[in-house]
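Re: the multi-chain job from yesterday

Posting the exact lines I submitted so nobody has to dig through the queue logs.
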Amino acid sequence: MFSNFNIQNFIYNFSCNCQKVQKKTFSKNQVITTYIQKRNQLCILLSGHADLVRYDLNGNRTIVEHFSKNDLFGEVFYKVTTNNELLVEAKSSCTVLFYIYDEIKSPCSKGCKFHDTLAEHLPELILDKITELNTRIELLTQRTTRDKLLMYFSLISTRKLSKTFELPMSLTDLADYLSVDRSAMMRELKLLKEDNLVDKIGNRIILLYK
Amino acid sequence: MFSNFNIQNFIYNFSCNCQKVQKKTFSKNQVITTYIQKRNQLCILLSGHADLVRYDLNGNRTIVEHFSKNDLFGEVFYKVTTNNELLVEAKSSCTVLFYIYDEIKSPCSKGCKFHDTLAEHLPELILDKITELNTRIELLTQRTTRDKLLMYFSLISTRKLSKTFELPMSLTDLADYLSVDRSAMMRELKLLKEDNLVDKIGNRIILLYK
DNA sequence: AATAATATGTGACTTATGCAACAGAAAAAA
DNA sequence: TTTTTTCTGTTGCATAAGTCACATATTATT
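And the result, structure tokens for all chains:
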């Protein structure tokens, strides 16, 4: 995912003098963080699964992003502009590395290698984030639930290098991720099966088209 | 829009030795650029209006982004991942500054001030882009056409600091931007008028709610 | 192991949205 | 100016998608 920069090596070899790095663990359904204005928090998901979730005034829940191991999140990647609540929820037990910035690009005054390396590689990391966001926009601009499902499956299939895969989230969550009604999505999945485009055993998907 | 960095001063005072900057003009409906893989092009719209447009296999057109004066675009902000065609179309006469990078973060070997300043401020510029993308995602995750319209109007209203404003694009384009059918959108606009939430005289919108 | 909680799967019904088609207004081109 | 093109506004109809409600399966919790 990350262009040239190996985030994994980086995370496991970091050293920090500035006391601004914290590692915390969370259990399922706990709120990992809420996004607020003017805070520059950067988080790395070391293990587990988590979602960036928004609740709107109508009670609709939207999964804005879905995070897996080594994914980065935090206000650094999401300047808060509207007043809808944004929070990151643990979908399973999670370990998270928290990092608070004063200034994004300036080097750390304490000579902290972690901070400096991160600042150096931030442009690449942000560009990767942009790619994800653009993909998400492409997904959301699909006009029908069917097209959203097919595109989503195609993305996962490409990522997993296989036409058969387990969904990385529950079907309930997938509906909130695609921004469609769950039961309507289930109906469409049934139609996709009937049309022999997709097979489905529980949460395992098998793409049948070439 | 741009955090600390004044893009306007920057553009009008640039100097460049590396011959990689070009200024071009376009007339309405001309294709300014197409997005392709592995090219690092950065463009600045000096005047006019333009759209980043995607055409899918079903013939649907989606306006991915709408650009006005001083907006930045190009592959730097959009790594091409899918094989859908992406192009920037002039909506009126446009002047565009083109810039080709070899490496995004490295300083210019020719000591080109333009290049260096841009590289220095790229993180901020990209973060601003992220904000736009996130706003766009929030717009697209609105479940109904009504909610999309209301949120879009609210965004423009905030930007223009007025409850009355001219739409920055045609209604036909707005439908492609919100990813909904044009006639269905027109119908919803009529319903918004009937419900006294919005008034509309041609392409001028007046928000009536507090 | 028993209970509770959450997720999946489905159907009947309503509503929102897309589609096609057209007329008039506005804008662009000749 | 006149002509052509594009945009706006509207309708009838078909269909996709949301709502509600419930049964069953699966997964946590006690």
